[in-house]
Description:
The protein is an alpha+beta fold and 135 residues long.
Amino acid sequence: MDFPIKKTDAEWREILAAKGAERGAFEVTRQAHTERPFTGKYEEIWADGSYHCICCGNHLFDAGTKFDAGCGWPSFWKAVPGAITEITDRSHGMVRTEVVCSRCGAHLGHVFEDGPAPTGLRYCMNSASLEHQGN
Ligand SMILES: [Zn+2]
């Protein structure tokens, strides 16, 4: 898959370090790792504002769509239109829908169909892939 923003692994590592990204952010965003549940800094944050891709700054979610799914990862019921790309993921013997940043291809997490109204969706994101910005 092709994304508008392309950088080498070394460049991404530098960008993430400069932003003070969470430990493991490179492995999560560029190698599709999953952080351990209940370890991310945004799991229990309910401040107003918006959530952006830690790699490229793309506006992904609004704080008003974040909800407590109890699963240990920041969860949202709606993404900003056009901000994410969904990919069928057949790893680990499961069929899931992977969610990546539409601008830089960063792995963000997965989307499941057990979320709350009005969408019924649960965007289960890695905290390390996100950057919160207040209003
Ligand atoms: Zn991005």
